[in-house]
């Protein structure tokens, strides 16, 4: 696993004044975790985005704060709804010997026979899966080979996936992940995908899983983000 390091500073600016940081190319954030008291930080936005493109929310990141290293995952990034500029970052500090729960993106690989033969279209019903693993064992993505899908109705369930024995998939295993649907217009295809994804999500939500604790400074963060 490639090692990624990001240097940040402890933040003293809070409330409305954080908008001044963003104008200088700095994004406010917080570090929190099961075994650490939440504390505010500030990070160079360009440096963070460059690394975030590589690690996503599942790659381990070494956060250096005044020469002290914190192993973290990028737990959440908030963006401006209009400009899409980065507003706030939550870093989850982890114990490398304790398993964590997070969501891993799904990536389709191969060309489905149904698509190649113009029989149907492949719909992705879930874009990410919730998994549990040690921080060093978290996959950056879960690849799904769709090349064998040949006819309308062919489906790949979560239970069909081959993942490392070090990774436990928490999303309902009987949920449909990918399926072949009839050729339709782009608008109809989008509607079918949304309806199928909603049904799958509802089924998965019915199975409770142990989530990640929210930052203790959540209300303060929401106040900062809104400024």
Automatic annotation (TrEMBL):
Gene3D superfamilies: Ribosomal protein L25, beta domain (2.170.120.20), Ribosomal Protein L25, Chain P (2.40.240.10). Residues 6-91 form the Large ribosomal subunit protein bL25 L25 domain. Belongs to the bacterial ribosomal protein bL25 family. CTC subfamily. This is one of the proteins that binds to the 5S RNA in the ribosome where it forms part of the central protuberance. Keywords: Ribonucleoprotein, Ribosomal protein, RNA-binding, rRNA-binding. This is Large ribosomal subunit protein bL25. GO terms for biological process: translation. The keyword RNA-binding applies. Residues 203-217 have a biased composition (Low complexity). GO terms for molecular function: 5S rRNA binding; structural constituent of ribosome. Residues 203-227 are annotated as: Disordered. It comes from the Bacteria. The lineage of its organism: Bacteria, Candidatus Gottesmaniibacteriota. Part of the 50S ribosomal subunit; part of the 5S rRNA/L5/L18/L25 subcomplex. Contacts the 5S rRNA. Binds to the 5S rRNA independently of L5 and L18. Residues 99-181 form the Large ribosomal subunit protein bL25 beta domain. GO terms for cellular component: cytosolic large ribosomal subunit. Residues 218-227 have a biased composition (Polar residues).
